[in-house]
Amino acid sequence: xxxxxxxxxxxxxxxxxxxxxxxxxxxxxxxxxxxxxxxxxxxxxxxxxxxxxxxxxxxxxxxxxxxxxxxxxxxxxxxxxxxxxxxxxxxxxxxxxxxxxxxxxxxxxxxxxxxxxxxxxxxxxxxxxxxxxxxxxxxxxxxxxxxxxxxxxxxxxxxxxxxxxxxxxxxxxxxxxxxxxxxxxxxxxxxxxxxxxxxxxxxxxxxxxxxxxxxxxxxxxxxxxxxxxxxxxxxxxxxxxxxxxxxxxxxxxxxxxxxxxxxxxxxxxxxxxxxxxxxxxxxxxxxxxxxxxxxxxxxxxxxxxxxxxxxxxxxxxxxxxxxxxxxxxxxxxxxxxxxxxxxxxxxxxxxxxxxxxxxxxxxxxxxxxxxxxxxxxxxxxxxxxxxxxxxxxxxxxxxxxxxxxxxxxxxxx
Length: 413
Prior knowledge:
The chain is mainly α. Helix content is 79%, strand content 0%.
């Protein structure tokens, strides 16, 4: 299909943003965040114990880790467009498979491959932000893309309970089937509409065009790039560990320690999806204005407050405020991180750099829930894990102050 951008009333970069949001809606929002909604029905239908539920989730994160390692070479070999479409297609096929699975082993294997597909789709789509948008617009563009995650949380929170009510115990199978069809449609849209670079359509990136400095042409490897990647990676690791601890155990905490009904706890969780719609774009735009360092410090401070409130045993009001703060900041760090990698490393190293920091993130989200589960087993409460998460997020605020200023924007464009 030949695209004619001159006929559009807006820059084609915004088509990339829409397709990016649709990709994240499917590869993370449906493939990862809908899992918790489908799990109760799957556990009953497949006779899964708590340990096997955890193993399935860990398998998904392990698949994502493998994708992080492979993605840079695959992006260089095939380009973001092909890799995104292939990742979404892989996810859709495995979702179809899970809808027909009859046992633990099949679900474990298929969900691990879904994690692989999620990485293949998520990493290159965030790299495209640096190609299609200049530095002063990258944060806002990445934030709009990440709204796909929150939209999927709301969507699955409405769809899965309705299916279970209408279809009864087999409802989880229909849920996976519907998610597969949506993801397949996303794969088709990615294949048709994505473009790897504005130059393919004879366009410039979105944003003000500034004169290029000599360094932008000659030196694409900024001094201290390895140290900067390590700093960003460690910050991303803290985010991955702490946000997954909250996301995995907060509903269980509401039911088991606050005495909420499952319906009421589910309603609280759906608010996370609603508030997260504003998370990425709001903090992305903020980081465009105050800088990536200031944006990261602000978000980690908000998340520290959310985790502290969840672990404070302060009652329903404190818990509600915690949910609001968590939702508002839920997807802000990935937004800022995608923009920061492009700012610090430049376009030539954006794909490799984002894959490297995402490796830290994947390790964090793999280790965090397991560690929190062991702490809860020893202490008898999940609130201890939330307090540890608060301390880690507060430490990240301090650590973020050590980030240097990126090179001049004229060199990053």
